[in-house]
Amino acid sequence: MSKPAIQSRTLQDWLKQLDSPLLPATNSSVQAMREAFADSTRSIRELADLIQECPALALSVLREANRPGTVELEQAESLEAAISRLGIARCETLLKRLPAVDEAQIAQALRQIQLISQHASRQANGLFGARLARLWHEIHWGSLLFLAPVWALLAAHPELLETWQQRVLLKREAAHKVERELLGVPLLQLCLALSEHWHLPLWVSQSWRLLLKDRRLLVKALRIARDNEHPLQQQHCLDDDKQLQRWLTQPANSLLLANALAITAHHAWDSRHNLRWQMLTGLICQIPREQVQQQLHHNAVSSAQQHARPGLWHPAQALLWPDWRVSHIRAERPAEVDRLAQWRQHCRQLLAQPSAFTNVLQLTHCANQALASAGMQRVLLLLTDRQHSRLQAQQQTGLDKVALTLTLYPQQSELLRRLLSAPRQLRISPSNMAQFSALLPGSLKGLFPSEHLLLRSLASNNHVVMLLVADFAGHSFSDTQIEQFSKTCQCIERALSSFAQRQR
């Protein structure tokens, strides 16, 4: 499906484009809310807690409650207040209007940014919920809906997230330059305009306004926070600047801090931006940065336990790795067109009649290159002897060179014996890892420390002669990658048959 062209280049054009469309919601969340609204025993607080699992409905309800022309003069700052104002029947009507689709049909970029918002809400509750208990509702819902303008933007143009990450986070291009080029207007200006147009909680608009129009105070605070090893000196600096001291005590800052911490952690826990926000949080809460970091990690794990979804990145995942400072965002690989051209070239060589190879080494080298150009990040290709008593590594990609010395003995592994009994493919994922992990040889698991793995045995003249092991650097496979892997294996199998005929 082609990407919709970005035609809006002015603030008014963007407001017009992003104001009307309703955000999609998953079928499961919509069904859960239907049942909840139909349950007369549910309190408004319980309904609000359930709605946070359906961000599209949360935004729709709050927008409707604060729509100009309502009788109430005060703006609803929390979802509980919005539900009370609208009533259950009206909320049910808003739910029916939402486009309900399967989760896979919602753009990954939209689901990812909503996961970041849910993470930010958990960080706000953990860091400030107890300190500002009377303002818990404002903190909770404001932090969740802070990025709502970005939800709408990525629902319309999901490709913008990957482009922004690559250019701003990895290539270190100036954010304002990239945003001007992509959107025609600064992103902060667009977010502020949408938050005001939708009458989101006042603290949301206040935070966007701070980032856009009053960054002087923020810069001064960040400079003082940098000297986090000398709290007494920090306090002296604040005593000398009463305006800054008053600003730091504003509860609305909790929204900005929580979202800044969640967004920067999405890139990497030890990114310079995340460390700056950690130190500012420590200054405001008057606790050491190490304690802030510990609390952030605890909150992230709690968020992941509730909100993590397959195919989406949650920063808590990095905490499970030996080097938790690593970023999941990788530089773009060669252009898709070039990669596909390389893959097709290798496949044509494999399919050539008569065989284009004069020896087995040439064939396996081409097969290895074909799998790598098919998107596999780590590949190990093993050949078996005629009696299936031994598997010897022949080619590798993305592994240590010691992998080529690997020898496996099928008689010691029931899984290997099954793979060698007939051509077959096994896809290992978190759902079946427990079932197959114990059956994998330890030396093979050491080379592929992953919960997402493909194993494929290939035959020539109905006799298995080769075993392929591949993964995507530990990440889950997309349907496209699985399909391309299977097509590559078919080409390799054809090449094996052609080579065997040439030998005869």
**What does the main sheet amount to?**
6 strands, antiparallel
Task: Provide the structure class.
Answer: alpha+beta
Low-confidence sequence ranges? none
The proportion of residues in beta strands is 5-15%
What does the average pLDDT come to?
A: 88
- Overall shape: it is elongated
Number of helices: 25
Amount of helix: 55-70%
Query: Which radius of gyration do the C-alpha atoms yield?
Result: 27 Å
Protein traits:
8% strand; 504 residues; alpha+beta; six-stranded antiparallel sheet; 8 strands
Structure write-up:
The structure is a single chain. With 504 residues, this protein is α+β, with helices and mostly antiparallel strands. The protein has helices at 11-19, 27-38, 44-51, 55-65, 79-86, 88-97, 108-128, 136-145, 148-156, 159-170, 175-183, 187-197, 202-213, 215-226, 231-239, 242-248, 253-267, 272-285, 289-307, 336-351, 360-373, 414-421, 433-437, 442-447, 479-503; strands spanning 25-26, 100-101, 378-384, 391-397, 407-408, 425-428, 453-460, 463-471. A hairpin with a 2-residue loop joins strand 7 and strand 8 (463-471).
